Amino acid sequence: MLCFCHREWFFLLSHEVLNPMYCLFEYAGKDNYCLQINPASSINPDHLKYFKFIGRFIAMALFHGKFIDTGFSLPFYKRILNKPLALKDLESIDPEFYNSLIWIKDNNIEECGLEMFFSVDKDILGEVTTHELKPDGGNIQVTEDNKEEYIRLVAEWRLSRGVEEQTQAFLEGFNEVLPQQYLQYFDAKELEVMLCGMQEIDLVDWQRSTIYRHYARSSKQIGWFWQFVKEIDNEKRMRLLQFVTGTCRLPVGGFADLMGSNGPQKFCIEKVGKENWLPRSHTCFNRLDLPPYKSYEQLKEKLLFAIEETEGFGQE
């Protein structure tokens, strides 16, 4: 039976409740894996209750300093912080759409022969409908004189996309746990780091902040371990980190600020078992049980197997 610490519980639960397959959230774009509220979430009649629960859950993670699996879009963080959105915020979620609006702003659309109206098409689960940006917008043509209003309205639409009810439900749950004054001095980027941590792994920092038990820094198995870490890509390093600590995220202060179940706890490698054993981890203590393997190839094979089976395998 596995015993997950609070840190891992928050991380794994967030992986489930934020999963786009449940239609509550969706990716911000085809190449942007930040999450935003899915306008089609109303397909679930209880979706507002779910958003309120998720709001509470995210606030609890933030309050207790626990990381979540996937981050949100920059405009969504600004909504959590009750900060106004601007045209520039579009660039982070839809650069193509943003650039098209900038082009309209900088060029004479009448000379170019563009014919646009104060309305947009929206596609929800394959059903295309027309949304008017202002009353009778489908019959009001965009001109040089009113294009600034059009840019403002279409940007507001693209940033909200009719998810006001869902956003309000999320914020209601969030603010029940964390009132706005708790976050008044933070900006969106700082909030993202608080919730998701840092993803780029600094190998020098990792080595400098690691401790050893029954191994020495000069032990050949330790040398092989760091050789392995240097050879693998950042994705596998994150999976190794998750295998040992229960999360693939790092605190703002890096490895030196890793937390265990009882407070600060550095990454630890301990000699445990025999050479034919598989590695094990103790996520509540950030500890890797590394058997005394006889060759680099053997250590690499066993560790790769471990990180490919991160969820559950060899974890306590």
What does this 3D model show about the protein?
The chain has 316 residues and is α/β, with parallel strands linked by helices. Helices cover 41% and strands 13% of the residues. It is built from eleven helices and ten strands. The protein has three domains: 118 residues, Alpha-Beta Complex (Hect, E3 ligase catalytic domain fold), CATH 3.90.1750.10; 74 residues, Hect, E3 ligase catalytic domain (2-Layer Sandwich); 107 residues, Hect, E3 ligase catalytic domain (Hect, E3 ligase catalytic fold, 2-Layer Sandwich). A hairpin with a 2-residue loop joins strand 3 and strand 4. A four-stranded mixed sheet has the order 5-8-10-9, with helices on one face. The model has no long low-confidence stretch (mean pLDDT 89). The longest helix is centred in the first third of the chain and has 17 residues.
Summarize the model shown.
Its EC number is 2.3.2.26. The protein is α/β, with parallel strands linked by helices and about 325 residues long.
Q: How is the secondary structure organized here?
A:
Blueprint: H1 6-17, E1 25-29, E2 32-37, H2 47-63, H3 74-80, H4 95-106, E3 119-124, E4 127-132, H5 147-160, H6 164-177, H7 188-196, H8 203-208, E5 211-213, H9 220-231, H10 234-245, E6 259-260, E7 263-264, E8 268-271, E9 280-282, E10 287-290, H11 296-308
Parallel strand pairs: 5-8, 8-10
Antiparallel strand pairs: 1-2, 3-4, 6-7, 9-10
Protein name: HECT-type E3 ubiquitin transferase
Organism: Sinocyclocheilus grahami
EC number: 2.3.2.26
